[in-house]
Design the sequence.
């Protein structure tokens, strides 16, 4: 399988939360297969955007490979990084609204989560191809701050480093009047959320020819 882009994600381990996420979005990023969604009117519509990525928390945003760097080199670099980074622990996960979409976000002290994400962004950046002018324009159309624009130029994405907020996405952007209803629907389907919430592994994922992301390899954080 050849991949057009790669990303570093946190993918929940096998269990109730992972099963919920795969079913809710209709795509299992671990197996690379469609999953039957719950019979909820409109669910397919609100999950069309996050579906292609699968249920995950982004640590290093999707990137095209840098010229001259091989897939094998990237795989080794991700494994080496995981061996240097310590796991992160926060109080738990909670259902929140973030920028108009539903997501699960960590509660309590998130400095460890941010530390893991910053290491992924920084240490693997040599494998990231430069952003195109069209990509830069698309990001800037969202209305970036000066700092976010600087991060975009340095790291290829504006919401990294101190602008980063870890989240497991559950929907696309929702109309304001629909947010409360969809929060109730999501709450009714959620399993018990982990307490504490632990990130003790990272996942190298790739974008397939059909635009869907799938897991390539997980690496335990053993630093």
Sequence:
């Amino acid at each position: 399988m050849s991949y057009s882009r790669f990303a570093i994600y946190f993918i929940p381990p096998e269990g109730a939360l992972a099963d919920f996420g795969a079913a809710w979005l209709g795509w299992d990023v671990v197996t690379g297969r469609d999953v039957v969604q719950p019979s909820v009117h409109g669910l397919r519509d609100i999950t069309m955007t996050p579906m292609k990525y699968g249920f995950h928390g982004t640590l290093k945003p999707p990137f095209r490979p840098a010229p001259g760097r091989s897939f094998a080199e990237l795989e080794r670099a991700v494994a080496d990084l995981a061996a240097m980074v310590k796991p992160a622990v926060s109080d738990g996960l909670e259902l929140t609204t973030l920028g108009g979409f539903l997501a699960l976000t960590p509660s309590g002290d998130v400095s460890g989560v941010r530390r893991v994400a910053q290491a992924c962004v920084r240490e693997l950046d040599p494998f990231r191809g430069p952003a195109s002018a069209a990509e830069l324009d698309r990001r800037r159309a969202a209305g970036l701050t000066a700092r976010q624009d600087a991060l975009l130029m340095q790291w290829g994405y504006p919401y990294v480093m101190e602008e980063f907020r870890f989240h497991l996405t559950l929907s696309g952007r929702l109309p304001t009047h629909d947010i409360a209803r969809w929060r109730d629907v999501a709450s009714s389907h959620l399993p018990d959320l982990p307490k504490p919430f632990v990130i003790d592994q990272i996942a190298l994922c790739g974008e397939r020819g059909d635009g869907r992301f799938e897991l390539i390899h997980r690496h335990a954080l053993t630093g």
